[in-house]
Specification:
- The chain is an all-alpha fold.
- The chain has one domain (11-70).
- The protein contains three helices and no strands.
- It is globular.
């Protein structure tokens, strides 16, 4: 990824960096909730969620959801 004072990131680079920042700050569950609120009523949510959770198995996603529930995040 380009990261210079004058070089601009591509749209995909910006989305990737932004998503990683959201996950780092909010965790995957809250980041997903944030994205859902932000994009309510737009696009194909199933496709978007697949991209967001890419590389994670259902067990890992389930653990994240249970953890978030225990901590009152959802």
């Amino acid at each position: 990824m380009r990261n210079t004072l004058t070089g601009q990131k591509t749209a995909q680079e910006l989305i990737t960096v932004g998503w990683r920042a959201l996950i780092k700050e909010l965790g995957p569950v809250s980041a997903t909730r944030f994205w859902m609120y932000l994009t309510y009523g737009e696009g194909d949510s199933v496709v978007e969620y697949k991209k967001m959770w890419k590389g994670k198995g259902i067990e890992e996603i389930h653990r994240e959801i249970l953890r978030a529930k225990r901590h009152g995040e959802i």
